[in-house]
Design goal:
5 strands, nucleotide-binding, ATP-binding, binds shikimate-3-phosphate, 176 residues, shikimate kinase activity, alpha/beta, 8 helices, binds magnesium ion, Rossmann fold, binds adenosine-5'-diphosphate
């Protein structure tokens, strides 16, 4: 399913929290000389508050509805680099919209992810027992990330710059 306008993103990054989607997405946009968009930032702008407050005030189903709308709007209009929030692929409509697009799954180990998210903005789903929550979340979502991905890039022992290089390499058409 393609965007009605024919606009399509140059790269879409998916993967669990801590994979580096936001960090690597910004680098990729710089590298490609294009714009960067992050559905989490779009949701915060639409709601007028940070993601943890949306979860606490209105609950996860409301957050997911905002996320669905943010993903749809971005896929309809953005031709640069797009990072999705880690849970966006749980929506079947979103997965259908991603078919045929240059989607890259940034993979990450439990160890790295938990270390990285501990350094960063709060993620409400990982607020209590992050290791256990992350493991369960990944068990549920790994097949979904894999289903939507045109390429998988592992982030272990790679700097964000190295990951950006690997993403560009993975999307490069290869000679048969
Ligand atoms: N390849 C990497 N190596 C080390 N730290 C990283 C790497 N990628 C991201 N980080 C760090 O991990 C944290 C989470 O990264 P972020 O880009 O917000 O992930 P995501 O958007 O996938 O949840 C940030 O503090 C970021 O600087
Ligand atoms: O995995 C998830 O369900 C979520 C991931 C977060 O984004 P990142 O994947 O960028 O951390 C953010 O959308 C929200 O906290 C929910
Ligand atoms: Mg992010």
């Amino acid at each position: 399913m393609t965007a009605p306008t024919g606009v399509r993103p140059a790269v879409v990054l998916v993967g669990p929290p801590g994979a580096g989607k936001t960090t690597v997405g910004r680098l990729l946009a710089e590298r490609l000389g294009t714009t960067y968009r992050d559905t989490d930032a779009d949701i915060e702008a639409a709601a007028g508050k940070p993601i943890p407050e949306i979860f606490y005030d209105e609950g996860e189903p409301h957050f997911r509805a905002l996320e669905r709308a943010a993903v749809t709007a971005a896929l309809d209009s953005h031709d640069g680099v797009l990072s999705l929030g880690g849970g966006a692929v749980m929506d079947p409509g979103t997965r259908a919209r991603l078919a045929g697009l240059p989607v890259v799954f940034l993979d990450v180990t439990l160890h790295d992810a938990v270390h990285r998210v501990g350094l960063d903005a709060p993620r409400p789903l990982l607020a209590v027992n992050p290791r256990q929550q992350w493991r369960e979340l990944m068990e549920q979502r790994r097949p979904l990330y894999t289903e939507v991905a045109a390429a998988v890039v592992t982030t272990a022992e790679r700097t964000p710059q190295d990951v950006a290089d690997a993403v560009l390499d993975a999307l490069e058409p290869k000679d048969a």
